[in-house]
Each structure stands twice: as C-alpha cells, then as structure tokens.
Amino acid sequence: MPPKLLKVAPKKTFYAVFHKLRTLCFETDADTTSLEAEIYRMVYDLYGLTEEERKIVEGE
Q: How far from 4 is each of 38, 48, 53, CA to CA, in Å?
C-alpha cells in the first residue's frame, strides 16, 4: 500500500511562522501562544495525527 499523502502547510509558511515566533521571543512581554499553537498544528498535520491523537499529545 502506498504511503498516505498528507496535506501540510508549505515549507515557506512554516518558516514564516517560525521567524515571527523567533522575533517575538526577543520581546520581553510578547505573547507567543498563538504562534506556538500554529506551529504545533502544522507539525500534527505533518505527522498526520488524528484529533484523538492530538489530544493525547497535548495531555487532554
């Protein structure tokens, strides 16, 4: 059986989000929560995790 094709964010998108997060990390009071969540979502998509598997990873 061929491997499952995953729909993932393009490499450019991942790097753009990561760059925003890295830039905000230098600001002392920056809230990076939304960017971190976006990166987690992209990684979950990359690995093809189901909603149930995502909850396990997040400790829910």
A: 23, 9, 17
